[in-house]
Amino acid sequence: MSDMSRVRLDDELNIDALPPGEISRLRIEIGHNALGAAMRLPVLVARGRKPGPVFGVTAAVHGDEINGIPVIHRLFNKLNPQNMRGALVAVLVVNLPGFHEHERQFSDRRDLNHLMPGRSDGNEAQLYAWRFMHRVARHFDFLVDMHTASFGRINSLYVRADMTHEATARIAYQLEPEIIVHNPAHDGTLRGAVRALGIPSVTLEIGNPLRFQQRYIERSLAGLRAVLSDCGVTPRRKPLKPKETVLCASSKWLYTDHGGLLTVLPGVTDFVRAGEVVGTLSNIFGDAIATYSAQSDGVVIGKSVNPVGRSGARILHLGEVVSQEHPFFRRETESVGAANNPGGQ
Asked: Where in the chain are the domains?
């Protein structure tokens, strides 16, 4: 994958212009720097020989959340577009300025994942978000948006999805993460903006920022391959033995009420009981000043690993565990493609 002479420059994603049965590399223009040079998104497209859905995969909406990039690399290395339907479109880096600076936020310090779908007449980040939605994301039929924890925190491998929506819920199940959290999209997220267009979408949180974690990468790859098969983009695969997934009807963060040096005791995916001490706080002289307990039973989805915190610092992200009989989590028998497109492709 080193022949840059084969990269196609485009202003917008146009799958019909790409050769069927091949993998294409694109650079899609999304803006310009202060010297007037074009900023171009790196995009891989595997177009099948037969018509079908367009499945989108995105990484690095936050510039320091990069575990999704090797997932995309390995996914495309295993594809054979000759026997695919529709297309798989993967945006390797959405937030180009943040990626270059190893930063979560955009170059103007705004969070792209709270600005979608952006504005055509907006500020720098809003315009960038609008162009991404208009030139790329609106062409998808499905989306898996890959993230990680933010700096100073770590995550399990988990999915956020609206589990009351049939096709979206099935994608979440097919990904087989460690944890699924029922979480309707809001706050200007890419997932929410795409869902507002009627496109089933989920957020896949893959571990920790600014590193490649092989265990999470491999499990995410297996999940995406299962989803693509279930959607009818790739040939049917023999189902693997299901992995254990913890189901959560909701989740919330626990915060400190004082600044100091924080130690969080449980690990990610650990189960805790209401009243169990989950964190301790000391002052700069080493004196214990506070302990923090879980307010309810739950599973640790993510946690802080940065000891230095002001008042209101995050401690841990706790999920409310429910059984598979919960109304949010009824597994459907229909495939994702059939559920989203009753008339077929």
From this structure: 4-244, 248-322
Token pair for residue 118? 């952006």
Amino acid in the structure at residue 50: K
Q: Which residues of 93-119 are buried (b: 16+ CB within 10 A; e: fewer)?
A: bbbbbbbeeebbbbbeebbbbebbbbe
- Residue recorded with tokens 């920022």: 209
CATH number of 248-322: 2.40.50.100
Q: Quickly list H helices, 34-118.
A: 68-77, 96-100
Given CA atoms 305, 306, 308, 313 in this order, what sign does their dihedral have?
negative
* Whether 139 contacts 47, CB under 8 Å: no
CB 305 within 8 A of CB 17: no
CA distance 46 to 26: 11
Tens of pLDDT, residues 273-285: 999 999 999 999 9
Q: How many angstroms separate the CA atoms of 183 and 92, rounded? A: 25
Task: Return the bridge partners of 40, or none.
Answer: 29
Place of tokens 């706790």: 318
Cis peptide before 117 (omega within 30 of 0): yes
CATH of 4-244, one of 3.40.630.10, 2.102.10.10, 3.90.420.10, 3.30.1070.10: 3.40.630.10
Query: What confidence tens digit (pLDDT) does each residue in 284-340 have?
Result: 999 999 999 999 999 999 999 999 999 999 999 999 999 878 877 765 545 555 445
Q: Quick one: how far is CA 191 from the chain centroid?
A: 8
Q: Give all strands (DSSP E) within the chain, no chain letters.
A: 7-10, 22-32, 38-47, 50-59, 85-91, 142-147, 153-155, 157-161, 179-182, 201-206, 246-255, 260-264, 271-272, 277-282, 288-293, 298-304, 308-309, 314-322
What CA–CA distance (Å, rounded) separates 113 from 60? 10
CA distances from 163 to 56, 71, 225, 275, 326 (A): 19, 24, 20, 29, 11
**Tokens 């650990």 label which residue?**
270
